[in-house]
């Protein structure tokens, strides 16, 4: 299954915030959408699943598996969310339900989309918690989100998004709220899960250093428009757009360097 976005336009209050965005995500590809704050990257991702704010008006084309989904009724889109396309948000503290246990949240989508029987739900929750490398999964599925660390909550959010084994995962800045060590662990987890399942990935970020660790191709947005589209190694070595060069400067300023620039020695 592939995702094809063509000439996507999003207007809010008469102001065009996404302006003619086009990109293609082939089956199994890992595509990054990167840009500064306000560039329209998160709105582009939300449009795929019909999760735009009520005041937003979208036009253009979004095709999933050769089916136009931009104008689908919410009832039809609800069948896609979680079952064929999963999404992980930036802040799991707000994305997760505070009054439901981890296990209930992990198995909510399989119960709705796959008819998961009540007697099978706990075992499924434990297995999925283990899949995202949560510690002591048999115990953690009985806990509530506030009882977990930030990194653990994000792992739960990933388990929720992948519970029905979707073919496409959209990750909207999933590591921004985490410290550097946990961020690296989450990126490693996402790489492994996507690769093992043969999923496609759309990864939204403002951080080129993060993008380099997860995506193979990048779409660069500025003020709602695509200003560059290139393989990630090319973007790192020879960015063409001013915004991409700025993102590269920001990344290297934090002591990060592209793999090709790093020394092969050991300390």
TrEMBL record:
Family: Belongs to the ABC transporter superfamily.
Presence of the UniProt keyword Transport in the record: yes
Keyword annotations: ATP-binding, Cell membrane, Membrane, Nucleotide-binding, Transport
Protein's recorded name: ABC transporter ATP-binding protein
Annotated ABC transporter domain residues: 3-248
Membrane topology: Peripheral membrane protein
Subcellular locations according to the entry: Cell membrane
Pfam families according to UniProt: ABC_tran
Protein origin, superkingdom: Bacteria
Species annotation: Microbacterium caowuchunii
GO CC annotations, alphabetized: plasma membrane
MF-aspect GO terms: ATP binding; ATP hydrolysis activity
């Amino acid at each position: 299954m592939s995702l094809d976005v063509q000439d996507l336009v999003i207007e809010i209050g008469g102001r065009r915030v996404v302006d003619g965005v086009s990109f293609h995500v082939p089956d199994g590809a890992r595509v990054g959408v990167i840009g500064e704050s306000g560039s329209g990257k998160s709105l582009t991702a939300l449009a795929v699943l019909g999760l735009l704010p009520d005041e937003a008006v979208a036009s253009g084309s979004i095709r999933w598996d050769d089916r136009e989904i931009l104008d689908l009724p919410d009832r039809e889109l609800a069948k896609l969310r979680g079952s064929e396309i999963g999404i992980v948000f930036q802040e799991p503290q707000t994305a997760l339900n505070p009054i439901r246990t981890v296990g209930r949240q992990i198995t909510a989508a399989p119960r709705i989309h796959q008819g998961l029987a009540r007697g099978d739900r706990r075992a499924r929750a434990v297995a999925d918690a283990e899949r995202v490398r949560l510690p002591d999964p048999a115990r953690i599925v009985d806990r509530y989100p506030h009882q977990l660390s930030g990194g653990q909550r994000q792992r739960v959010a990933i388990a929720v998004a992948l519970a029905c084994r979707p073919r496409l995962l959209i990750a909207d800045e999933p590591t921004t709220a985490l410290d550097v060590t946990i961020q690296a662990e989450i990126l490693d987890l996402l790489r492994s899960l996507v690769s093992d399942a043969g999923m496609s990935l759309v990864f939204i970020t403002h951080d080129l250093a993060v993008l380099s660790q997860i995506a193979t191709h990048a779409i660069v947005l500025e003020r709602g428009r695509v200003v560059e589209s290139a393989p990630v190694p090319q973007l790192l070595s020879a960015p063409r757009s001013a915004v991409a060069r700025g993102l590269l400067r920001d990344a290297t300023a934090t002591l990060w360097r592209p793999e090709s620039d790093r020394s092969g020695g050991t300390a």
